């Protein structure tokens, strides 16, 4: 039997007793795998795999008529198949379901009506998006999904169209994802949707009063609504010898390509920094058989975000794969292929990569006179202090209803979801950004999922076993769960997301 014909043939009928209310199962219709679920008197049949990275939706969670993906929490409407929350954008296929004689029969696949842009009557004529990354792409996609018929101009200083940035430190860097998988959409997406994507177009200034942006070359582009989504840039080490050609950083596709090129001949690499990017780079370089030394000032990797128990686990995991740690030390100088540490140790390395964190790119917002406070300050609708100018992604500091604090995070899914909400609000909507922050990180075959936001906590309650790679840790303050980190507890991670959302809605 072909893999896509696994499970029962759903066109032949399934008795209601085999699918109790609230349950879901996977079968096939022809060559396609289909998820069938009963929700009260309704039954829904949709594609069985997430359109992001093919996550198995049968292992996800159904909430309020939508299925959430177990891997990175994308969400699809069961009735329409629409990807209502990033990181997925493409809809699931949907099938009609007939109930007859106590049985469910999955019938024909529905065809999706093609969305026709409406004329921009009364709304903004031109929306300009500064930034061709996660938030900028998600906003442009959502504007067209909403059938916005006005002009969309995306100005990006990148050389490449929007890419799947998380893969640049993981599968792509490790050599297990080909370059065709890296763009967020095929090149035709922009022309098919009349999105004027201008690459290598750095914006040099914004005149909020005149409602126009100026490109570095002098061209002025007027806007009716503006989205700032300029992301963040990697921090470079300020130590002797750390020239850009000797110490590589990782933000763009070109950066990832440059590391791959050097890794082809490097025997040993030094990675400066033991947080997410540094350790993902370490794991990917190990997959390329490069010897890896990680240098970082902290006692345990990722302790500040995930606590000491996860920190010890992550260290042990990387050591099992051959990574050598130099913790509680920093690099003090680079001399060609030698990295000198604060304790005078010298690491001979043909490749040096810095993963020292990022700084939000706020220069444009600051010089335009927008309110900034360790990020571009936005309200619950993601609008900045200038009416009609919105900000999303790594630069935005927003009032998070879950923690009750104004926060700024550097998470892929948050940036995309903020881009989506900003798009709705640029069209006149009043949508509050209320998604619980979510991120994932991948180390070898171990995914770590994190939902919520806990900058400080007074208790970490751990269920299961971190060392056994099956656990859920609740980060609590004053008895209240602020965030949850998990390994292979996907449904519980989704449940935590739902309860954070419900808690803040009440
Ligand atoms: C290698 C890597 C791996 C990551 N992995 C994960 C992960 O696993 N999980 C996770 O949650 N997060 C991850 N992140 C973080 C995540 O990618 C970011 O949070 C996200 O990309 C932020 O989106 P953004 O739209 O704010 O910025 P970006 O995606 O960085 O996009 C910013 C865009 O703005 C453009 N720009 C900047 N200034 C200007 C200007 N003046 N004019 C025109 N254009 C400009 C840039 O060229 C770029 O196109 C990772 C980041 C990196 C670099
Ligand atoms: S595979 Fe479903 S959200 Fe990533």
Largest sheet: 6 strands, antiparallel
Ligand inventory = flavin-adenine dinucleotide, FE2/S2 (inorganic) cluster
Q: Given the C-alpha coordinates, what overall shape results?
A: globular
Helix content: 10-25%
* Sheet with most strands: strand arrangement: 1-10-9-4-3-2
Write down the overall mean pLDDT. Answer: 95
Alpha-carbon distance between the termini? 49 Å
Give Rg in angstroms: 24 Å
Structural class by SSE content: alpha+beta
Sheet-strand content, in percent, reads 25-35%
Stretches where pLDDT is under 50 for at least 5 consecutive residues are none
Q: Note the total helix count.
A: 9
- The number of distinct β-strands equals 35
Annotate the secondary structure layout.
Layout: E1 14-15, E2 24-29, E3 32-39, E4 42-47, E5 61-63, E6 66-68, E7 75-77, E8 83-85, E9 94-100, E10 103-109, E11 126-130, H1 134-145, E12 151-155, H2 171-174, H3 188-192, E13 195-198, E14 203-207, E15 212-215, E16 220-222, E17 225-228, E18 232-234, H4 253-263, E19 268-272, H5 276-287, E20 291-296, H6 303-320, E21 324-327, E22 331-335, E23 338-341, E24 346-348, E25 351-354, E26 358-360, H7 363-367, E27 376-377, E28 389-391, E29 396-399, E30 406-407, H8 412-426, E31 438-443, E32 446-452, E33 459-465, E34 470-477, E35 480-487, H9 490-505
Parallel strand pairs: 11-12, 11-17, 12-13, 17-28, 19-20, 19-25, 20-21, 27-29
Antiparallel strand pairs: 1-10, 2-3, 3-4, 4-9, 5-6, 6-7, 7-8, 9-10, 14-15, 15-16, 18-26, 22-23, 23-24, 29-30, 31-32, 32-35, 33-34, 34-35
């Amino acid at each position: 039997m072909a893999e896509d014909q696994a499970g029962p043939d759903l066109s032949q009928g399934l008795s209601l007793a085999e699918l109790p209310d609230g349950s879901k199962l996977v079968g096939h219709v022809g060559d396609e795998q289909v998820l069938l679920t009963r929700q009260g008197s309704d039954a829904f049949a949709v594609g069985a795999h997430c359109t992001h990275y093919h996550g198995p939706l049968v292992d996800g969670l159904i909430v309020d008529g939508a299925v959430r993906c177990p891997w990175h929490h994308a969400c699809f409407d069961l009735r329409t198949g629409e990807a209502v929350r990033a990181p997925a954008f493409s809809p699931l296929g949907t099938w009609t379901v007939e109930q007859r004689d106590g049985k469910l029969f999955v019938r024909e696949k529905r065809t999706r009506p093609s969305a026709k842009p409406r004329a921009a009557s009364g709304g903004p004529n031109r929306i300009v998006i500064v930034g061709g990354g996660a938030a900028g792409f998600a906003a442009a996609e959502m504007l067209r999904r909403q059938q916005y018929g006005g002009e969309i101009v995306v100005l990006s200083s990148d050389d490449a169209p929007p890419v799947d940035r998380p893969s640049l430190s993981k599968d792509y860097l490790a050599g297990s994802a080909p370059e065709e998988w890296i763009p967020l959409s095929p090149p035709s997406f922009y022309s098919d949707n009349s999105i004027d994507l201008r690459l290598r177009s750095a914006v040099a200034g914004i005149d909020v009063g005149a409602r126009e942006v100026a490109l570095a070359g002098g061209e002025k582009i007027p806007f009716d609504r503006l989205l700032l989504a300029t992301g963040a840039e990697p921090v470079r080490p300020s130590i002797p010898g750390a020239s850009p050609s000797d110490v590589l950083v990782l933000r763009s596709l070109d950066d990832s390509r440059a590391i791959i090129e050097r890794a082809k001949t490097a025997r040993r690499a030094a990675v400066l920094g033991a947080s997410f990017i540094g350790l993902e780079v370490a794991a990917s370089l190990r997959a390329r058989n490069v010897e890896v030394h990680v240098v970082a000032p902290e006692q345990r990797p990722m302790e500040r975000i995930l606590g000491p128990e996860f920190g010890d686990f992550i260290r042990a995991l990387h050591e099992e794969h051959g990574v050598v740690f130099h913790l509680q030390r920093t690099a003090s100088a680079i001399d060609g292929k030698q990295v000198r540490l604060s304790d005078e140790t010298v690491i001979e390395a043909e490749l040096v990569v810095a993963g020292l964190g990022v700084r939000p790119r706020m220069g444009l917002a600051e010089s335009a006179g927008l309110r900034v406070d360790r990020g571009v300050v936005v309200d619950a609708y993601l609008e900045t202090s200038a009416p009609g100018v919105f900000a999303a992604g790594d630069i935005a500091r927003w009032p998070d209803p879950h923690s009750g604090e104004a926060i700024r995070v550097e998470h892929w899914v948050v940036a995309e979801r903020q881009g989506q909400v900003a798009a709705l609000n640029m069209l006149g909507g009043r949508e509050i950004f209320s998604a619980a922050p979510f991120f994932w990180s991948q180390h070898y075959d171990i995914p770590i999922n994190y939902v919520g936001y806990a900058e400080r906590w007074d208790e970490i309650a751990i269920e299961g076993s971190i060392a056994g790679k099956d656990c859920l840790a609740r980060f609590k303050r004053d008895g209240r769960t602020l965030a949850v980190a998990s390994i292979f507890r996907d449904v519980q991670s989704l449940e935590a997301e739902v309860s954070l959302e419900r808690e803040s809605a009440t």
